[in-house]
Specification:
mainly beta, eight-stranded mixed sheet, six-stranded parallel sheet, 2 helices, about 10% helix
Length: about 190
């Protein structure tokens, strides 16, 4: 085994151990390239399915990863669930309530998924900087979805099975199964094969 292969084997082992130490529930075959950032309330759930890939190393994905994978479940009732055979490259997932991602999903470099506004809309409440007062709504992403790099998925969005989100899109509303959406805000572009 050459030194390059040893480096990735060691990276995987450290990443796997780090995820376990942070209380992440893992299925078999997790692949970790570079160390992710994990923030989890002790009662929150982060569940990663079989053969999930967490890629924080720009040498593994040359699409221009600019940050590590970040999985944040900061409240007791927070949950992040990532389905089998799903890949995340430099992706940020912040779940004040719930972010659920299906199986065989590809999420491109530097995409962000937020189920919250992070701050209350009322300026008086913002002065207290209490994130728990911010509006939040669960995000659900179906199986076989492809989310292009640098896209942002916002609170309350449901993306149907087999949908495609174009690179750099801002998704503010539901995307039906088998459709391609792109733009800011994202809009329907065309049907895709299911």
């Amino acid at each position: 085994m050459n030194s390059h292969a040893w480096k990735y084997a060691l990276s995987w082992l450290i990443g796997w151990a780090y995820c376990r130490c942070c209380g992440v529930e893992l299925d078999k075959g997790l692949r970790v390239y570079g160390l992710p950032i994990l923030l989890r309330h002790r009662k929150a759930k982060i569940i990663l399915g079989r053969e999930v890939v967490l890629n924080s190393d720009p040498r593994v994905n040359l699409a221009g990863i600019v940050r590590r994978v970040i999985l944040a479940a900061p409240f007791a009732a927070s949950e992040i669930v990532v389905g089998d055979h799903t890949g995340l490259s430099g992706v940020v997932i912040y779940a004040a309530r719930s972010v659920r991602i299906g199986a065989h999903v590809n999420i491109g470099a530097n995409a962000c998924i937020y189920d919250t506004d992070f701050h209350p809309l009322d300026w008086r409440a913002r002065r207290g900087n209490d994130i728990a007062l911010a509006v939040s709504a669960p995000v659900v992403i179906g199986d076989d979805v492809w989310i292009g790099g640098n896209s942002v998925i916002l609170k309350g969005v449901n993306i149907g099975r087999g949908a495609v989100i174009g690179a750099g899109s801002i998704v503010t509303r539901d995307v039906p199964s088998g459709e391609m959406w792109a733009g800011n805000p994202a809009r329907f572009r065309k049907k895709v094969v299911l």
